[in-house]
Amino acid sequence: MGFPLLMRSISLILLLFLFQSRSYTSSPNIKLPGDSLSLSVTDFGATGDGIHYDSSAIQSAIDACNRHYTSSSSICRVTFPPGTYLTAKLHLRSGVLLDVTENAVLLGGPRIEDYPAESSSDWYVVVANNATDVGITGGGAIDGQGSKFVVRFDEKKNVMVSWNQTGACLGDECRPRLVGFVDCRNVEIWNITLREPAYWCLHIVRCENTSVHDVTILGEFNTPNNDGIDIEDSNNTVITRCHIDTGDDAICPKTYTAPLYNLTATDCWIRTKSSAIKLGSASWFDFKGLVFDNITIFESHRGLGMQIRDGGNVSDITFSNINISTRYYDPSWWGRAEPIYITTCPRDSSSKEGSVSNLLFVNITIDSENGVFLSGSPNGLLSDIKFKNMNLTLRRWSNYSAGLVDYRPGCQGLVNHSATAGIIMEHVKGFSVENVDLKWTDDNLNAWNVPLEFRPSTVNNVSFVGFNSGLLHEIV
Ligand SMILES: *[C@@H]1O[C@H](CO)[C@@H](O)[C@H](O)[C@H]1NC(C)=O
Ligand SMILES: *[C@@H]1O[C@H](CO)[C@@H](O)[C@H](O)[C@H]1NC(C)=O
Ligand SMILES: *[C@@H]1O[C@H](CO)[C@@H](O)[C@H](O)[C@H]1NC(C)=O
Ligand SMILES: *[C@@H]1O[C@H](CO)[C@@H](O)[C@H](O)[C@H]1NC(C)=O
Ligand SMILES: *[C@@H]1O[C@H](CO)[C@@H](O)[C@H](O)[C@H]1NC(C)=O
Ligand SMILES: *[C@@H]1O[C@H](CO)[C@@H](O)[C@H](O)[C@H]1NC(C)=O
Ligand SMILES: *[C@@H]1O[C@H](CO)[C@@H](O)[C@H](O)[C@H]1NC(C)=O
Ligand SMILES: *[C@@H]1O[C@H](CO)[C@@H](O)[C@H](O)[C@H]1NC(C)=O
Ligand SMILES: *[C@@H]1O[C@H](CO)[C@@H](O)[C@H](O)[C@H]1NC(C)=O
Ligand SMILES: *[C@@H]1O[C@H](CO)[C@@H](O)[C@H](O)[C@H]1NC(C)=O
Ligand SMILES: *[C@@H]1O[C@H](CO)[C@@H](O)[C@H](O)[C@H]1NC(C)=O
Ligand SMILES: *[C@@H]1O[C@H](CO)[C@@H](O)[C@H](O)[C@H]1NC(C)=O
């Protein structure tokens, strides 16, 4: 049951509460130890013709470079001159910098035998396990040939090859990731294009001190699971100057086995048919000390999102200087055009509830087809949330219909809801709104003339200072 508050043009002050001071994250300054040696893969027999597999030549060059690092402690480059290098799974090692030069492409093989008969979670085109001082650069590209995994094109969701033959994984998600760093320290990935992943693109797992900068990620807009950067259980990660255009979540911190601390993402441009930034849905441990600044989110299905489902707690997160445009796409994709979306409903009846606290949204410009959704749960409250200096313009420009509230994954799923509100709140304790302007176009008034909706009345300590809601164009 809901208790919508209908207010056409309001400016009110409710309870005030003090917002605790926050500490900003300091960025690790990753610098790989100076490189003293450079080995070309062609000297190890790579053809670069795009037809013959160069896997063993490339792996030999990597292993030779790693021996150099072990004896000298300075990193070694494995250089790819212009050409196309077809490869099965490669193991990147400590002290090795993959230098894929401009006009060179490292091409992931599309055959199941290119990825060993082990658990699908270990399928990558390039992966570093337990490595230190390791990275990728060069100005070239790593290409996963994702289109070769599509068996039937479909505007809503491509139908993908499922490599279920090994029994290692079930269903449609049996596809290799593109690049992975697992249990690594001092990782730097820069000046590289990562494109056409068959599954997730760049995966950072249980790493410490990772820098990703000047990276372009080009996935496929209709391919499910084409995530941009997935950061799991890792500390001290900096992402800056990235360009991500893909179908699934673009920057996606998750926690499976340990907490995630200190992630900063700045100066990025993102377009996606899912969430541009999403915490979760894997959320068994805490997320703390994350900063997202100077980011443009273009025509995405969701802007800033949190799907907290498994009992991990989220705290001390800042979103600043962000422009968001969100629109509807087919509802088979998670997202309902919400510029900001936070939910903590437990995934299923056996899941714990995680809470979300101390969030700051400041200097945010929004142009979207739907409003903000803040939905905690009885034991997963949203507390101390602040919106400061925000302009929201709500209008419709796609042809997809509205009228659904999205609790996926798990929870209540998609729920019918006729009105579209500016901000929906449930299970919120401590929400301060300061200098926020909400404008509506008049083309769909009956459907969305609800600036604020408390649903149900589990919302406490709300403060509005300088909140304005009204028509974008006054009716004359
Ligand atoms: C996170 O950053 C803070 C502030 O720089 C630092 O004190 C803390 O040790 C970092 N946490 C981890 C787990 O590295
Ligand atoms: C990780 O690498 C270190 C050396 O850097 C080694 O001592 C350790 O055994 C490795 N751990 C695993 C799980 O391979
Ligand atoms: C990126 O790579 C290109 C081609 O190798 C090179 O010319 C350029 O200097 C590199 N830029 C950076 C920032 O490293
Ligand atoms: C996947 O493989 C497993 C083990 O071989 C089998 O039990 C299962 O039915 C297969 N599933 C699909 C969707 O093909
Ligand atoms: C991150 O920091 C937390 C808290 O100190 C720690 O429990 C966790 O093991 C760290 N993770 C990594 C990958 O270093
Ligand atoms: C990560 O970087 C910090 C700051 O430079 C440094 O103190 C720490 O030792 C680094 N961690 C590892 C595992 O190298
Ligand atoms: C914001 O990021 C863009 C790149 O997306 C960059 O060109 C611009 O300089 C950044 N602005 C500031 C104030 O850092
Ligand atoms: C957001 O848009 C405003 C107005 O168009 C512009 O001044 C600002 O630089 C933009 N910020 C970002 C992060 O794109
Ligand atoms: C989240 O916070 C609650 C309440 O403080 C606590 O009981 C729970 O253990 C925390 N979750 C994790 C994963 O630490
Ligand atoms: C919001 O709009 C006002 C009036 O146009 C403008 O002065 C302000 O800079 C805008 N702020 C943001 C964060 O977009
Ligand atoms: C918000 O924008 C204002 C005006 O552009 C600027 O002075 C302020 O530093 C910004 N705040 C943050 C946290 O970036
Ligand atoms: C919406 O549908 C109309 C009529 O079918 C079509 O002309 C228009 O191009 C569509 N607009 C979009 C944004 O798809």
From TrEMBL:
Keyword Signal on entry: yes
Keyword Signal annotated: yes
Signal sequence annotation: 1-25
One matching Pfam family: Glyco_hydro_28
GO MF annotation terms: polygalacturonase activity
Family: Belongs to the glycosyl hydrolase 28 family.
Protein name: Pectate lyase superfamily protein domain-containing protein
